[in-house]
Write a structure and sequence with these properties.
Blueprint: H1 4-18, E1 20-26, E2 32-37, H2 40-43, H3 48-59, E3 67-71, H4 76-88, E4 94-98, E5 111-112, E6 120-128, H5 132-143, E7 147-156, H6 161-167, E8 172-176
Parallel strand pairs: 3-4, 3-6, 6-7, 7-8
Antiparallel strand pairs: 1-2, 4-5
Helix pairs in contact: 1-3, 3-4
């Protein structure tokens, strides 16, 4: 059995040391910032990824869902970390990937992985700025027949995502905010 408080503390330590990059950057939303939170440095790291899985599952432990995913690329390692953490705890969780656009060949699917039709799903992302990527993913899975129970991210930049999720009627949770990351 792991100590979730210790997992969260270690994850925060790793995020602060390796993922917070200071300097002028343009975000995916097109806005500029004086720092960048590069969580792929964390979600794809051999030590941090298992922590991500356990901490994210703890964040949403009170919700019922059987699949997790979001818009590629930010959501992919978060979803698979959660899938592996649930499996390590003796449970089952499927993951899915939402493409930015449907494929023009093969089965022409926008959502890859086990079908989400008729299922309760959690939409995840590594970090949220405006919330556009999780909202796009939520719309895609809803169109595919899924029920979105919530949106969850590792880090929230406090730049409008929470408000956009609320406007869309989606519950929103995040593990760390700007103050946790030493950015507020």
């Amino acid at each position: 059995m792991t100590d979730i408080a210790a997992d969260r503390a270690r994850l925060l330590e790793i995020v602060r040391a390796r993922a917070v990059v200071h300097g002028r950057v343009t975000l995916s939303s097109g806005t500029e910032a004086d720092y960048y939170v590069d969580l792929r440095r964390i979600t794809l790291d051999g030590e941090a990824s298992p922590l991500v899985g356990r901490v994210m599952l703890d964040l949403v432990a009170d919700l019922e869902f059987d699949a997790v995913g979001g818009l590629t690329l930010g959501a992919d390692p978060v979803a698979t970390a959660m899938l592996h953490a649930r499996a390590a705890a003796g449970g089952r969780l499927d993951a899915f990937v939402v493409r930015k656009a449907g494929k023009a060949h093969g089965l022409q699917q926008r959502i890859e992985g086990p079908s989400v039709e008729g299922r309760r799903v959690l939409v995840v992302e590594d970090t949220s700025t405006t919330g556009a990527s999780p909202l796009d993913a939520a719309q895609a899975v809803q169109e595919a027949g899924a029920t979105v129970v919530a949106v969850a991210t590792i880090a929230d930049r406090a730049t409008g995502a929470a408000e956009r999720f609320a406007e869309a009627g989606l519950e929103y949770r995040h593990v760390f905010g700007l103050a946790d990351l030493g950015l507020a």
